[in-house]
Every structure is written in structure tokens, then in C-alpha cells.
Amino acid sequence: MRKLLPLLFPAEPRLFAALGRWIARRPDHRGGTAFDYPRTDTMLFWTIVVLCVVEGGAVEFVLALLRVPIGWEVASIVLHVYAVFWILGMMASFAVKPHLLTGDAIVVRDGVSTELRFGYDTVRAAVVERKRSEGFGGRTGLKVGKDGVALLAYGDATVRIDFHPDALISRNGQPLPSPYKSLRISVADAARFVRTIHSRLPTMAAS
User: Does the record carry Transmembrane as a key word (predicted)?
Assistant: First the structure.
């Protein structure tokens, strides 16, 4: 059973851990310099939470009118409470899981969904560059084009990171079989993010 649960609910432990950090106001910086996402459409998430609560109340009212077995009502309550906590956990993860620049690595995040990690020596260049992107709630998720350019954005991508051909990049702790050519991400303070990266690049790469 212990081995089965992570397969059925792979994201839940991370979502609920993020929710706990959010409530305790303990963002996951891990000793690095944090850079927030430009926006995460908090209003959209709160709207979904409210709608979920209203829907749950409406469903419970209908089930009571139909006089269904109590198990149906309990199942409905459990599912709606689970959905509310799942959405709150996702929203919390965007607040407590920012991008990080540590002493030896760049950590690019998408809440608890994706974490890309690579060393400064893998970076050929980093530039402030705005590119229009589209996705649900302004979030694209991780997309990789046929040209090898990856996109992980909220609204417009504001930073482009170019890699060396032999770059070592890990995704959620697992090394990628082949590196990206470039990575476009959204960073609130894009200029400071890029300056900090270039200040830490090896001399040959920075030049």
C-alpha cells in the first residue's frame, strides 16, 4: 500500500507540504537568493476555491433532497474538501517555491510541478527578453519545442537562458537525456536575475 499511494497521488504530499509552509510563512529558499514569478493569477485560484465550495453545498442540498444513502453524502464532502485543499496547495506552492540562485546552481521552478536544476558552468548566456506565451491562467507548464527551446512561463516569458551543448540539466532530480538549447522563463525582477547569473558565471562563459 505504501508503494501504491505515491503512484496514485504523486503530487499531493508536495502540495500539502507547500500549504503547510504557506500557512507557517516559511518559503523554501534553501539558502539561495529567491526570485518570484511575475504573477500567478491568485484571484483565479480563489475564484475556483469559492466555486468549488458553492458547488459542494449545492450538491449536498440535492443529495439531501433525494435522500440518498449517507455514504454518497460523505463521499461528496470528502471529494470537495480534497479539491479545495488541492487548489490551495497549488496556489501555496507558487508562493513558497520561487526560482533560486544558490551558490553553485540555478533552480527554476513551477510551484511543485517542475524543478529544473543546473550549474552556472552549463550556461552560455542569460538575457532579459520578453516573449508572449499563453496558457491556462497565464501558466504554460513546461513545453519543449522541436528546436530544443523550453518554455516555462507565467504570462510573458521575461528571461532566456542559453546552454552549452553538453549542459547537464536535471528535472525533478532526474538528469535529462539531452539538454535544452535554451530555456525561457518568467521572473518578476528579470534584470537583477540576469545580472546575478552573469556575476556567477565562469570567466570564459561570462565573456
Answer: yes
Specify the residue for cell string 546552481.
105
What tens-digit pLDDT sequence spans the chain (207 residues)? 444 334 334 577 888 889 999 999 888 887 799 999 876 567 777 888 888 889 988 988 888 888 888 888 889 999 999 889 888 988 888 889 999 999 999 999 988 889 999 999 999 999 999 987 765 556 678 899 999 999 998 878 999 999 999 999 999 999 998 889 999 999 999 999 999 999 999 864 544
Cβ-contact 60, 77 below 8 angstroms: yes
CA–CA separation, 161 and 10 (whole Å) = 29
19, 85 Cβ separation under 8 angstroms: yes
So where are the chain's domains?
4-96, 99-206
Q: What CA–CA distances, in Å, run from 186 to 58, 73, 110, 150?
A: 38, 43, 10, 12
How far is the C-alpha of 44 from the C-alpha of 49, rounded, in Å?
A: 9
Q: Which residues pair with 175 in a beta bridge?
A: 170
